[in-house]
Task: inverse folding
């Protein structure tokens, strides 16, 4: 098993990518702090995993809550090796539609939450003699601009470069901690529910999104969890600071449609 | 069950260095690996990857023997030449040789393996690029340019496969500083050019890597394993950089 003897914390683990990541980690032998702001959801994920999971409520924007979550995880599992910062939120809106409330919420959860997680994890991993990686879930929107999700782009772009900065910090100090950003395209998870509700037809929404992906489908949470698993495992021992793009070729370039009239 | 059990995968340049490590890792995880190299070796099929007829024969023989091809790892490559390797001093003949071996071979391998992989329901192609495709390499100009071409071709290939519904994923892998026979040659040459010891030349390379450790060939092999495995089923048209942070600071 690829994470035998390892301890990890996963945020946003009540649903979607976070839940799939916690399950993948446990399947490969890790003990997992399953965290979410929705404690009942975290408990459901932890119950599905069994004894290797500890459910915790964690508001990633709360610095004190991070200290408590890492301390509780270490108390139960003795150490920490890795952190998957998955928790995130999205509100649509162009630069001109964006409200300050939505902007502040996205920056708080998607960017400040990741920053606090990196700080807490570096401390906890160092103090307990662990070794592993911090994996931050960014997005295609953290690599390119999309006009109707301006705030989301800004928050995820911050995650991309913060991850590089954290990778260099750890490398320069010879800390046994790598930092990797992961960039999914659309993922068929609960995070799309509000968009589906707004459109009124989930199937049509998924089909429209799939039409933008050269592989012809959108991602499943497990597709992203597999990449996060690879990134935290010792198999990725020299992978740090670089992005892992899981997008069915969406960013590879324009399609040949323009030559087909 | 290994992670690539039942898969038949061709690995070029498999006699030494990265190719040998990739072939070993894929074999450990259950794959049937077809190892090719221009050099002789145990279990190696001799192949000049720049030879078109050789590719046709290799694909036909593999299909005849195994009935399917699920993956191709275009790993064979060269970096050095007799003439200087900077843009001003390099000789055209050497420029062409490096691009023939590093770029034309990748094109040929993909061209002839693609239909065979598609016929069996799909699979994955991994093309070995380099950090030299991401940062300038004035001391090995042709090599860097050839590896950038590989990365760009890989993205086109990925989109082509999507558009043709071939279910073949195509990605490039970019190692940083791995101590392989190819890398030893580069260090020896750098040492000679600067009148320093090989050890000092090696240290000069190492200072460019934030993690301050040489990569092992298995670090690259593990990335290739992930990409050819079904775990990476949604990853195509992208570049996986395994460089100990080197592309962040150079």
Result:
């Amino acid at each position: 098993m690829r994470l035998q003897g390892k301890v990890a914390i996963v945020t946003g683990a009540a649903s979607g990518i976070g839940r799939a990541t916690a399950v993948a980690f446990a399947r490969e032998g890790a003990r997992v702090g399953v965290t979410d702001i929705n404690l009942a959801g975290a408990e459901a994920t932890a119950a599905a995993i069994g004894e290797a999971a500890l459910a915790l409520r964690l508001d990633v924007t709360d610095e004190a809550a991070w200290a408590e979550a890492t301390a509780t995880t270490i108390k139960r599992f003795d150490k920490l090796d890795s952190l998957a910062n998955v928790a995130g939120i999205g509100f649509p809106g162009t630069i001109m539609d964006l409200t300050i409330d939505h902007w502040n919420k996205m920056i708080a959860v998607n960017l400040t939450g990741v920053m606090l997680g990196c700080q807490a994890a570096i401390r906890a991993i160092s103090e307990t003699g662990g070794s592993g990686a911090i994996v931050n879930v960014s997005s295609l929107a953290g690599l390119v601009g999309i006009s109707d999700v301006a705030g989301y782009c800004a928050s995820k772009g911050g995650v991309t470069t913060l991850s590089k900065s954290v990778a260099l910090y750890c490398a320069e100090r010879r800390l046994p901690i790598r930092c990797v950003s992961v960039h999914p395209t659309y993922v068929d998870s609960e995070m799309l529910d509000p968009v589906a509700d707004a459109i009124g037809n989930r199937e049509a929404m998924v089909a429209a999104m799939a039409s933008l992906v050269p592989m012809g489908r959108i991602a499943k949470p497990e597709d992203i969890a597999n990449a996060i698993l690879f990134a935290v495992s010792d198999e990725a021992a020299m992978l740090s600071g670089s992005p892992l793009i899981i997008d069915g070729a969406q960013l590879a370039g324009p399609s040949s449609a323009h030559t087909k009239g | 069950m290994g992670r690539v059990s039942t898969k038949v995968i061709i690995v070029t340049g498999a006699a030494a260095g990265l190719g040998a490590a990739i072939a070993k890792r894929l074999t450990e995880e259950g794959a049937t690996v077809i190892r090719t190299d221009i050099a002789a070796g145990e279990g190696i099929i001799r192949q000049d990857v720049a030879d078109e007829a050789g590719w046709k024969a290799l694909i036909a023989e593999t299909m005849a023997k195994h009935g399917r091809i699920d993956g191709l790892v275009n790993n064979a490559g060269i970096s050095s030449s007799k003439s200087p390797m900077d843009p001003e001093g390099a000789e055209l003949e050497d420029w062409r040789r490096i691009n023939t071996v590093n770029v034309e071979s990748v094109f040929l391998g993909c061209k002839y393996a693609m239909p065979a992989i598609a016929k069996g329901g799909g699979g994955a192609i991994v093309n070995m690029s380099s950090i030299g495709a991401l940062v300038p390499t004035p001391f090995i100009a042709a090599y860097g340019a050839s590896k950038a071409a590989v990365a760009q071709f890989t993205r086109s290939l990925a989109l082509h496969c999507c558009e043709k519904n071939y279910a073949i994923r195509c990605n490039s892998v970019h190692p940083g500083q791995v101590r392989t026979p190819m890398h030893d040659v580069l260090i020896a040459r750098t040492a000679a050019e600067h009148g320093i010891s090989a050890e000092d030349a090696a240290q000069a390379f190492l200072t460019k890597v934030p993690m301050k450790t040489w990569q092992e060939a298995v670090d690259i092999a593990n990335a290739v394993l992930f990409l050819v495995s079904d775990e990476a089923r949604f990853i195509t048209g992208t570049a996986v950089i395994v460089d100990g942070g080197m592309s962040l600071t150079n």
User: Anything to note?
Assistant: Chain B has a mean pLDDT of 96. The beta strands of chain B are 8-12, 32-37, 45-46, 71-74, 123-128, 168-175, 239-242.
